[in-house]
Amino acid sequence: MKIDLSDYARGAALAADLVNSAPEVRRISGEVLVDPAALGRFLAERGLDHEPVAEDLVQVLELRRELRAVLEARDEDGVAEAAGELVRRASAGPVLGRDADGRWQWQVETAPRASLADELAVLAGLGLLGALRALGHERFRPCASPVCDGVFVDTSKAGRRRYCTPGLCGNRINVANHRARRRERG
Ligand SMILES: [Zn+2]
């Protein structure tokens, strides 16, 4: 896998999406990565072509726990260190390679025999480091929804994003329904 250093938003989004696929975040729909095929679909939706096996899934779920800790860390030097450690698992380079439009880009390549989880660790780690450097630690945020434990990195230009999954967590009806149910249980 070749990873463009300028495209940190992609890796940062992958890191957050992976964390937010966990059942403790998706409390209603539950675990997203229920089996290797579900992981394959998750990756395909993000332009990553891979057919994971059971061992890949185990390792990716372990990486997901590590990424949650990085995204939630209060100490930004700690974030830089932990994300750097993820990058070191399988990276070589940097090299100069051409992107899809034929332009030269600084790239990091993953080792030829790197596992899926280590490739994702490099992609996510570089994304988090890039976002930290370009945008600052303030852009690493918990979801503002009172009924969601998701996290995200706001890589938007304006920097005013509040929800991990805008269409879902920013939905007032969902929040109102949740509060009503809580009152009923009371
Ligand atoms: Zn959310």
Structure description:
InterPro entries: ABATE, ABATE_dom_sf, Znf_CGNR. This is Conserved protein containing a Zn-ribbon-like motif, possibly RNA-binding. It holds the Pfam family zf-CGNR. Residues 139-182 form the Zinc finger CGNR domain. The chain is of the alpha+beta class and 186 residues long. The chain has one domain (2-135): Jann2411-like domain (Jann2411-like fold). Helix content is 49%, strand content 13%. It contains 7 helices and 5 strands, in the order E-H-H-H-H-E-E-H-E-E-H-H. It has helices at residues 8-19, 36-44, 54-72, 76-88, 116-135, 166-169, 172-185; strands at 2-4, 91-98, 104-110, 140-142, 151-153. The strands form 2 sheets. Strands 1-3-2 form a 3-stranded antiparallel β-sheet. Strand 2 (91-98) and strand 3 (104-110) form a beta hairpin. Helix 1 packs across helix 5. The longest helix is centred in the last third of the chain and has 20 residues, at 116-135. It is globular. The protein starts with a strand and ends with a helix. The mean pLDDT is 93. Bound molecules: zinc ion. Zinc ion (ZN) binds next to loops.
